[in-house]
Write a structure and sequence with these properties.
CATH class of one domain: Alpha Beta
Structural class: alpha+beta
CATH architecture of one domain: 2-Layer Sandwich
Number of strands: 5
CATH topology of one domain: Fusion Protein Consisting Of Minor Coat Protein, Glycine Rich Linker, Tola, And A His Tag, Chain: A, Domain 2
Strand order of the largest sheet: 4-3-5
Strand content: 5-15%
Largest sheet: 3 strands, antiparallel
Shape: elongated
Radius of gyration: 60 Å
Order of helices and strands: HEHHEEEHEHH
């Protein structure tokens, strides 16, 4: 290659390199590694919360005392004219009070039976004694004097009264009349067993009493056992569960003697028994 051509080529390359450098400088090109700028650190803000109580409300002013006024006596209005006042209603007449006459005293035949009937602690004698007392107390009228009284009586073997004790009463008048009747009783027959007769008797002085004759047909059956709590304990003695002992039946001879004394029950005794059951177990609401 001639020397002139090489110089010309060099000049062209140099011119191109110079123009490229000027262009790079004009465009802001970085010729060396520049580390990226760090992000500015934000300052930490600490917030304090303070609870401010609400402002106090002003206390209400005490109420002013009311003005005192002198106390004056109340004035009663004059009574209305009696001529113009309506007449007061008349009270309705009271309904007639219930009453029951005294029953008749036991007859001689009834006392003869009672003096020989030994079953059930002289059951017939005890009933006849109560009927005799009630027959001497008069008519029972509904009111404050009606009531019942219960006595504990002891009668000697010859029929004399040896002890009379009031257990309880619901009417002082009934007790008074019963004691007067007992003190005025005629002589009674001897007791059926020939021993002192001790029993409790309730005398009813009421127009609603039901003191009919008793039934005797079940008097020869064994007595039901008396209930006693098998778990009762006094806290001191050894605790033992007591079993109920059944009642021993009557021996054949005693049963025969008992059956021989049984009377024929009357319609009055059956009716009185039914009425006693109705009074005990009946209901006034259902009518049964």
């Amino acid at each position: 290659m001639p020397p002139y051509s090489s110089h010309r080529l060099f000049a062209v390359i140099f011119s191109l390199a110079l123009h490229a450098g000027v262009w790079l400088l004009a465009s802001g090109y970085q010729f060396k590694y520049v580390s990226p700028a760090k992000a500015p650190q934000t300052a930490e803000k600490i917030v304090f919360l303070e609870l401010i109580p609400p402002p106090r409300q002003p206390l209400p002013e005490p109420p002013s005392a009311p003005p005192t006024t002198p106390i004056t006596a109340p004035t009663t209005p004059p009574p209305p004219d009696t001529a113009l006042a309506a007449p007061a209603p008349q009270p309705s007449p009271d309904r007639p009070r219930a009453s029951m006459a005294a029953p008749p005293p036991p007859t001689a035949e009834e006392w003869a039976f009672a003096a020989n009937y030994t079953n059930k602690n002289s059951k017939g004698y005890r009933y006849s004694w109560g009927q005799q007392v009630r027959s001497m107390m008069g008519t029972a009228v509904e009111g404050p004097d009606q009531g019942v009284v219960r006595f504990r009586i002891e009668i000697a073997p010859d029929g004399r009264l040896t002890q009379l004790h009031t257990l309880w009463t619901t009417s002082a008048k009934a007790e008074q009349l019963a004691r007067q009747a007992i003190q005025s009783m005629p002589p009674l027959p001897p007791t059926p067993t020939g021993k002192p007769l001790i029993f409790d008797k309730t005398i009813s002085f009421s127009p609603f009493a039901n003191d009919g004759p008793p039934l005797y047909r079940d008097d020869c059956l064994p007595e039901p056992p008396v209930f006693r709590n098998p778990f009762a304990w006094d806290g001191k003695s050894p605790q033992v569960v007591a079993a109920q002992t059944p009642t021993a039946p009557l021996d054949p001879q005693a049963l025969a003697d008992c059956l021989r004394q049984l009377p024929k029950d009357s319609i009055e005794a059956e009716s009185a028994r039914d009425q006693r059951l109705m009074d005990q177990w009946g209901s006034s609401q259902t009518g049964r």
